[in-house]
Amino acid sequence: MVEQSDRAPLLDWEEIPNGAPAPAPPPERGYISRGANCRALGSTAPGTGWSTSPGGPGAFLSAAVSGEADSAASTETVRVGPCWDAHSPVKGESRLTGWETGGPEKEPATSVPEWEEKDQIVAVFVVTFDTRSGNIVEWCLPQDADLVGVEFKSMASGSHRISSDFIYFRKGSYFGLACFANMPVESVLERGARMKSVGILSPSYTLLYRYMHFLENQVRHQLESPGHYTQLEAFYEDKKGVLPIGNGAATSLQPVHWLPSINRCMHPEMKITHPAGCMSQFIKFFGEQMIVLWKFALLRKRILIFSPPPVGVVCYRVYGCCCLANVSLPGIGVSVPEFRPFFYINVADIEVLENEVSYVACTTEKIFEEKKGLYDVYVDNQNVRTHHENLQPLLRINGADRDKYRKLSEQRQMLLYSQEVDRDCSSNEEDLFILFFMEQNNRIFQILSEVSASQDKTLTEEHMRGMGLDPQGDRSFLIDLLEVYGIDVMLVIDNPCCP
Question: Residue ranges of the alpha helices (H) in 338-388?
């Protein structure tokens, strides 16, 4: 039986074998094994365990490169291969670990496939707000973990005005997820409120969502019973990462977005339980402005999204922007800057951002708006703007942009209709969203590559229309695109003077 909760913002599934009673609750609030409704859009970074074996994630990439015309087949290919849960080596098989049940861990009956992405939790921590010292790391494992700055990343500025939140962030080469909660208390010393965050660090953000409920339970437990870390200690011992050894020294895994092959542009899912999904929220929130963000993402610009707390939903907008720039054609984008997701940032990240040439991030701190040297594009609510004069033309919505948005909306409506009327759940909005922009991007670079390989290298209005671009309105965008990706073609499209 599968039960779904509407309480938490991330994937929330509890799998219980048919005919088996529900497991007894642990002594302390702990983690319940959740199914991972995953697709083959994961990492192929060294050490993560993914491969191009039959039925694995590589099968999707082969289909993407081959340019299958049938969209239904493409969608089905994305979902190829079984779905493996962190605690269930066989789909549907329940496996409870020691920190879940309080007893010894039982070994699984079958072995885990070699392409399953392994758990790599490199640190677990508790952050608290101290009325005298501010945000501090109250407890962590391992005890010598470098967590400088995590106390601010895991408790966003302005969080004192909300009761709970979740935050994705980056710490050096690692990604983090923290759950925050704010509980009223009758304490003069604590000024009437107790605020804490419980979080984890991992080399990739692919699997972080699996532990959302554990972190939610633990932060509430820490608020109600401060100083009890038994469940966190057991969790770390069960999930701590064994990092690869090279030349006698431990080295961190590459984050999922630093990939040397065509997989480098593929981003893993972060699925939520909202009925419409995070991509549906992304589309509805930005509307046609999403196409403007698509152009800036393809140009590898520095995109900063501002929003007051809660910041969790804004982290999904960061992810949505990353999905706009997917390209699956071999050799495309190898020489361009990585489009790095930073998720939540604060003033402590200013020095790091000064050296970044391409990223997308979000913040709750308004002071960033004044620091124009740190970003190219500033997004405040649905307002997308840039202070660079040469990028101003990209802010204007043209006919081709509206056509793309209309086509995406029509495909979404068809999908929703098939799900409601035909009960067809073989695809979802996230698949549709990612594939829509990937096919758009592939079409652009396929035509540009063909023109670049031709004898006269002449790019015409007909070529631009074939790429889904407006010959006049997208001229500036195309010129920037050719420069960023180093594509050698000659643009012969007329550029009439404005009246």
Answer: 350-353
